[in-house]
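Researcher: Next sequence.
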Amino acid sequence: MAVTVTQTPTTPFDMAYGANTITLDGITPSQEKYALQIFVVGQTTPIADIRQSPNRYARAIFDIQNILQTQVQPTISNIDGLHYSDTFAQQNTRMQIANGELVQYQIAYTTETNGQIDSAFVTSPTVYTTIGGQKEYWQVPYYEGAEFIPIATADAGTGCTNVTYNARPLSDNVWTIADTETGDNFLTANGGYSSPGGIDVHNVSLNDQCTKSFWQNITASGSISQAVQGIEGFWILQVGLSGSVFNTSFLANTQGSGGGPNITLGQGLIPSGNFNVITLATGPANFPQGTLSANTTHYYIVPVLWTPLTCVTDEQSQVPVMSESAWRTQRYNIAHTIEYTSSFSYAPDYTPTPTVNQTQPCNDYPHIQFAWLNSEGYRDQFTFTKKNEKKINTKRNNFLKEIADYNTTSYSVDKQSRGFTTYSQDIKEVWSAMSGYMNDEEAQLLESMFKSPSVNVRFSVGEYANQWIPINLISSSYIEKTYRKDRLFQYTVNYKLASNIKSQRG
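Model: Next structure:
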């Protein structure tokens, strides 16, 4: 009887932190153990070679999550500054493919008796993909992964791409509104851009650096074009006080922009390997200088699929991509104040003219932005805008020495001689930061940060300004706050640098 695989991790992807089980069946009474090998795609040496005795049902269940966890790494610490021209090495690109955050592997299996394999290993042709996120203990199989995968089909008769399911980005943000709740003409103007599955909302400051990551592959059905394989590109729509989209641009997802796998628009290459996930720079500070208008109150980022050119509306005729989002549209509200600049008038129909002031509100403190590894294995960000403090804790190790010098012609004491002398110091810089008033959805996002093992901060002023610095949260507990329970509420976070400050000796 040949060995068979009766259970595997979920495809097209699974999370590394949680059960990833492989069950083998088919051992004979004369054979002792099952043998399992795991190979990273493209490598010939296995990363794991495991033996296991059969259970009472003559099967062996291998949970390989610990092995997979060694193969996925958090995103690089400064990816949040992608395309930020002053600090980030990849300043010429707006996107980045997976950089160690996922692993693709295959399995091979046989049986073993007396320390020798009974027959050659059989390699499964299936390629499994795991990303560095976490799932609950009961999520086997990992059906929740379907939330991140759009579903598209072709309209009957026309062949035009039609999105039937609008997917989530790889984010813990839960603040989502419907198209009809935008408060502007998002749906009707400039080609009728739409996001049928909802719009994710973020409040940001003008100096914030942000990213958003997306699982690229889609589920396609019908006679859909072979060019419909992943994110074709992103519409970027700037909105002003009137609620009108006044500036529209398109960013193609190509290798030249740091993304891919397409080299040219509409090429239709299937995302695989590191191309499975694409990260886009989305924050106001990540925009190329001069492209974000001073009149912008908020902007939308719309990830779209390819569609035949005959299906493209006049407003978007410059590129063969659809206006309907396949992944949730991202809305970024820029923190600003509205000023009324019209001169004083006694006219009964006088209406002052509002203008946008994107400067920091006067009651804000220097902003501190946090970025962290979220539960999906990628990044989320949030900015604390209110009172923040810095405290230095110093532990000094001293010894007492004689202040006089006896190795001389006569006794003398120098006034500057030191008795108690510091031979080492342990210096820790500790900060606290307070948020502005928050809504329930933002509070849930912060819960993700409190659970994260990897958090970075970016200060707006001081010696660390505009740098992403790794920190450790000191706050050991998170108390859930809601508007219903707490009305207006804020959060305070205490944290310290992930590395101690080097001190001189006295």
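Model: The two ends are 76 Å apart (CA to CA). The helical segments are 65-69, 440-451, 483-486.
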